Amino acid sequence: LPGIRIVMVGKTGAGKSATGNTILREKIFEQKDSFDSVTKKCQQHQQTVEGRNISVIDTPGLFDTKNRKEQLKEEIVRCVKMSVPGPHVFLLVIRLDVRFTDEEKNAVKWIQENFGEGAARYTIILFTRGDQLRTCIEELLTNKQIRELVEQCKGGYHVFNNTDKENLLQVTTLIEKIDGTVKENGGGHYTNEMYEETQRKIEEKEKRRKEEEERKKFEEEEKIREDERRKLKKKELMEA
Q1: With pLDDT > 90 as the criterion, what percentage of the chain qualifies?
Q2: How far apart are CA 174 and CA 169, in angstroms?
Q3: Fewer beta carbons within 10 angstroms: which end of the chain, N or C?
Q4: Integer angstrom CA distances of residue 30 from 104, 193, 196
């Protein structure tokens, strides 16, 4: 059976490390129950699960404002290199038991901005803290913001209870959903070329932005110089 490469993204404290341990059925990723990021750099571990080689990449809190933009960029590049020739799925990890924030709401947009528009086709939302769910997940999806987020992800969603390590079915079902996503994408995966194309577009956009800033700055400076010339000419005429 073919292997699966998984990249987990999400806020600090969402339960990415615990999710990685549940998938690999072993406590490999360091985890603690807090909103301080345990994972500072991308980490990769792999195990044979159900006869398949499963590779999981845990990322730092990619929406963490403490991370500088440059650091974030470096980690994204590391993450892509680790997953070569590319991940089959991005697992967007979100906690069920905390308030749904703008960061979660804009999470898919963030993935698309950093990995490209097409990355949403390779994304599955993984809700953690399934044990805290007081109702069925379908009822939770009546929340407009959560429903819209799920609809953006072509891979759909899944619910995990990371405290119930004996529940092997939740991992089996996730693997089946990942296989379904791969099939929907023609048997392919997100590629390094897609990432490079995204970066090229980002660089072009940044270049255009800087050029526009420089143009405006030049026009403003030229206007100031023109005003100064006019004032000087007026002064000369008055003194003549």
Answers
A1: 30
A2: 8
A3: C
A4: 23, 31, 31
Determine how β-strand 52-58 pairs with β-strand 43-49: antiparallel
Residue written as token pair 């994204």: 76
* pLDDT in the model for residue 124: 93
Asked whether the predicted pLDDT for residue 214 surpasses 60, the reply is yes
**Which residues have a Cβ under 8 Å from the Cβ of 150 and sit 6 or more positions away?**
125, 141, 156, 157
Among the four given CATH numbers 3.40.50.2300, 3.40.50.300, 1.10.443.10, 1.10.3720.10, the one describing domain 4-190:
3.40.50.300
Per-residue pLDDT for 71 more than 80?
no
Instruction: Give the integer Cα–Cα distance in Å for 198 and 140.
Output: 33
What whole-number distance in Å separates Cα of residue 179 and Cα of residue 168?
17
Using the predicted structure, report yes or no on whether residue 192 has a pLDDT greater than 60: yes
Cis omega (within 30 of 0) on the bond before 85? yes
Q: Domain spans of the chain?
A: 4-190, 192-240
The fraction of the chain above a pLDDT of 70, given in percent, is 89
| pLDDT tens per residue across span 13-56 | 888 888 999 999 988 888 665 555 555 688 899 999 989 999 99
d(CA 181, CA 171): 15
Ramachandran assignment for 34, one of left (phi > 0), alpha (psi -120 to 50 degrees), beta (any other)? beta
Q: Give the number of C-alpha atoms closer than 13 A to the C-alpha of residue 89, restricted to the C-beta side.
A: 30
**Residue 12 near residue 61 (C-beta atoms within 8 A):** yes
